[in-house]
Amino acid sequence: MGAMNIQFDIKDFQEKLSSCIRPWQRSFQFWVRVSDIYTGYKVFQLRVGFEKDVQKQEALWERQHEFAAEKIYNMCSDLGGFFLKVAQIIGKPDLAPAAWVRRLVTLCDQAPATPYNIVRVVLEKELGRNVDELFERFDVDPLGSASIAQVHRARLKGDKKDIVVKVQHPGVQELMMTDIHNLQAFALYLQKMDIKFDLYSLTKEIEKQIGCEFNFLREADAMDRIRRFLYENNKKSPVIVPRVLRDIVTRRVLMMEYIDGTPIVKLGDEMAKRGISPDGKVAAVAKQNILKSLSLAYGQMILRSGFFHADPHPGNILICRGAEVALLDYGQVKDLPENLRLGYANLVLAIADGDATRAKESFKELGLNTLSNCEDEQKERLKLAQGMFDTKLPPGVKTLQPFSEESSVKKIAVEAFPEELFSVLRTLQLLRGLSVGLGISHSCAEQWRPIAEEALYDAGRLTAKDMKRSRGHKTRRKPGK
């Protein structure tokens, strides 16, 4: 008996020691890899400066991006967890170099799955019931696995419809917080040395948002609230929101209705299977309708409600029959304070109208503190607003390089960026990535203009005369129509 106790104590000690060492190991790996990528670019910048031929410069940059993309991919893939989210943020076709996008886009759904025997233990511990008693069928292989949880298709006993069961990976929260704190330290270094943008505030908001993702009770409430808002404020909701099974929700287990659809990243393949040319007119109309529906839902959530789904990356979007859009995963939501909701509504009008004076007022109202390094400050500030908070790329531009020497961020330094506004910025950047990925030039600001007007009108900040004047005395439309 004594020998068994000693054996158990040694195993327990080894597990505790391992859990203490893992964060240090991850931190070491992160700093070694990110330093290698960063110094590689700094050395390359010095080398490429000696090349005077522009075409040769571009070819050299492309090779450098491909070289760095492989290193970033390996870092995100090996570390997993939070770094899969980092890959989603930076691997967008409108923002990152094309070589990065090509390499990182494959990482979206590559989080390692938790083995079924552990999933079963989590389910039975959380639900207080035996899995075989509760489910008529439970698919052992997950539908997908993300950084925080994985989802399984199942059917409850006595039911006729399938459901989705979302189960949190055990022990993932502590490691994610370690990763975020490392990223915050790197952000502080970058904004001091290279990028005149308040990156640290953005990483603080990421920390706050991801911290909330570990509570599925909160996610269930958010899904219910957004579903109710969209379904009650439209004859037909612009997006499908899954229905939650409210009586079977815990902090680590969430059940909801199963929605059949095609992931938006596989839309082209699905069209080709059905004999529809992905580049033809039918496909173009379908893509336009998909983007407009999704964008309309976001315009209403952000500007009219202030409470919105803050993670529209491609893995969370399904295309259902009739080109209907389903929006999944409500772990990241944001409840925007009233002053920021209305300040952003004002900025939407400034962007839609190309009004530089209004953009300046909106920046001040939102607490976006800027420092000018150029002559035409008003014009550059408007360009900065369009680059950050609209989805339409300038004419002839396929990829934004926000930190290039010619970018507005270099000319108008963003010294303070309110943490609360980061979710809006990230959402717009993800929507722009979808727009570029679908091959559609779409301006959220132009589509949201009437919704922004309605929000400001309801708050007493716009009169009916103001609205008529700004529309060239056209008849007032209903928001979003």
TrEMBL record:
Pfam families: ABC1
The protein, known as: Uncharacterized aarF domain-containing protein kinase 1-like isoform X1
An example molecular function term from Gene Ontology annotations: protein kinase activity
Domain Protein kinase intervals: 137-481
Source species taxonomy: Eukaryota, Viridiplantae, Streptophyta, Embryophyta, Tracheophyta
Source organism: Nicotiana sylvestris
SUPFAM superfamilies assigned: Protein kinase-like (PK-like) (SSF56112)
Protein origin, superkingdom: Eukaryota
